[in-house]
């Protein structure tokens, strides 16, 4: 049974930082590209960032570029999202997702589309106060 479990969310003031983790089990983690998405109340789920299984390739939404950093540790079956310079508009539930993809890069997959992904975590709340 595949499980993705996010952690690290919380309440932070604007300008602060948080580090999210997503621990995967029940799958061969190094076969999967990973993505982070977020969903604010009343809004659609939106793409934040993706990373290839190799870690070589990453892609960020413009809204988080330069502030967020994705990384992964295939030995620990975990993907991380370091979020700096947080803004109130970053407030959302953050989800990690996994897509089986043997390519070391992100080319050839629609990594920014939620329906590309095979598995999802339950989400972790991030709230940024002004």
Characterise this structure:
The chain is mostly beta strands. Helices cover 0% and strands 48% of the residues. The chain contains no helices and 11 strands. The protein has strands at 3-7, 10-13, 18-25, 32-39, 46-51, 58-60, 68-73, 78-83, 92-100, 119-120, 124-129. Strands 2, 4, 5, 6, 9, 10 and 11 form a 7-stranded mixed beta sheet that branches. A 4-stranded antiparallel beta sheet has the order 1-3-8-7, with no helix packed on it.
What's the β-strand tally?
A: 11
Strand content: over 45%
Radius of gyration: 14 Å
H/I helix tally: 0
- Rounded to the nearest angstrom, the distance between the terminal CA atoms is 40 Å
What does the overall shape look like?
Answer: globular
The helix content is under 10%
Topology order in helix (H) and strand (E) letters? EEEEEEEEEEE
> Which residues sit in consecutive blocks of at least 5 with pLDDT less than 50?
none
* Major sheet description: 7 strands, mixed
Core attributes:
single chain, 130 residues, mainly beta, seven-stranded mixed β-sheet, four-stranded antiparallel β-sheet, globular
Briefly characterize the structure.
This protein has 130 residues and is mostly beta strands.
